[in-house]
Design brief:
Distance between the termini: 28 Å
Radius of gyration: 23 Å
Strand order of the largest sheet: 2-4-1-5-6-7
Number of strands: 12
Shape: flat
Strand content: 15-25%
Order of helices and strands: EHEHEEHEHHHEHEHHHEEHHEHHEE
Length: 367
């Protein structure tokens, strides 16, 4: 299962958010730096409004949603790339995740001190980015030293990699994350082997106070973060209130809905955050269903029908013949596979068909 790491400065709400999303109390929460030391890992189901309508189609009460893993990582401070605070531990935990959610503080609270004084989200983002870039530059330099002999011998592969490393170093030294360096598909495959921290897909989570959630799109700090994220990282920003999520964790679904409506919002920010993280990881969902359950299955974007079949069961992949496909909205509209066939909504696809998010598949196989 792919993992997304929750990072940020101390006291920005990372552990509160992690506990709320995972519905656990794994992560200690306190108003002082390095409350989190060892990373915490928790499974998270992906909210998907398409599941419930499918239960009516297949006449079942059981829904199995898709899932990902979140990792709550220790807070970072200036100098982390040189071992300050919990720097080395922090950086090693980031290397183990597949994507990054950076929580950025957008609330004032006298009871929760900020490590660097006044509230300034862009400064906070730059502190984290600078430490990650410094760690990446060190990794690039080490790799260049390792390739030096092969380069001097004229090894073409080594020379190509050395050129990439020099381009990457210039890019990083300009304050840019590795993921924004324009590269060909082949060069991207090579740079993946550098295991750079700033080469991971990133999503920003603007953490606002509960009273600001309903009007967050107009919040000046949220707008600044969104503009910065698009311009410098080419990524999106989700808005959450970690404290609200913590309060919702102990409520029933009906109580939670009533609580949110009182605040003037229809959905908590966590649902959107999880869905955004799911897509950030390059994941997509297809569905299967019968009278026992409706199941949301996770695949990577670009996976084929035969690969999707293997996700359900290895026998399906080994004996794959074809897959009957219908879009989830068409199936729900039709009310059954039989009616969907009559209306021409279904079609048979071979093993090379690239499965799309929202496909409902019925596999034909023979061993």
């Amino acid at each position: 299962m792919l993992k997304a790491g929750i990072i940020g400065l101390p006291n920005v709400g990372k552990s509160t958010l992690f506990n709320a999303i995972t519905r656990t109390r794994k992560a200690a929460v306190a108003n002082y730096p390095f409350c989190t030391i060892e990373s915490n890992v928790g499974g998270v189901t992906v909210p998907d409004a398409r599941l419930e309508p499918l239960t009516k189609v297949f006449k079942t009460q059981v829904m199995v949603p898709a899932a990902i893993e979140l990792v709550d990582i220790a807070g970072l401070v200036r100098g982390a790339s040189k071992g300050e605070g919990l720097g080395n531990k922090f950086l090693s935990h980031i290397r183990e995740v597949d994507a990054i959610i950076q929580v950025v503080r957008c609330f004032d609270d006298a009871n929760v001190p900020h490590n660097y004084g006044a509230l300034d989200p862009l400064r906070d983002i730059e502190i984290v980015l600078t430490e990650l870039i410094l760690a990446d530059l060190e990794a690039v330099q080490k790799r260049l030293v390792k390739l030096d002999k092969d380069g001097k011998r004229g090894d073409k592969a080594a020379l190509h990699e050395i050129d990439l490393l020099h381009r990457m170093a210039v890019h990083l030294n300009s304050g840019n994350p590795a993921i924004t360096l324009p590269l060909s598909r082949e060069d991207k495959a090579i740079t993946k082997g550098f295991f750079l921290l700033t080469d991971k897909p990133t999503l920003f989570a603007a953490n606002v106070r509960d009273t600001d959630l309903a009007t967050a799109d107009a919040h000046p700090l949220v707008r600044r973060i969104r503009d910065y994220a698009r311009a410098h990282h080419g990524c999106e920003t989700a808005v959450i209130s970690a404290q609200i999520e913590s309060d919702l964790a102990d409520l029933t679904p009906l109580e939670a809905l009533e609580f949110l409506r009182e605040l003037g919002v229809q959905e908590s920010g966590v649902g959107a955050l999880i869905r955004s993280t799911y897509h950030l990881l390059g994941l997509r969902t297809f569905f299967t269903g019968n009278e026992k359950e409706v199941h949301a299955w996770t695949i990577h974007a670009g996976d084929t029908a035969v690969k999707a079949a293997g996700t359900v069961h290895s026998d399906f992949e080994r004996g794959f013949i074809k897959a009957e496909m219908v879009r989830v909205d068409h199936l729900v509209q039709a009310g059954s596979f039989a009616v969907a066939r009559e209306k021409g909504y279904t079609r048979m696809e071979g093993k090379d068909y690239v499965v799309q998010d929202g496909d409902v598949l019925l596999f034909k196989f023979n061993l």
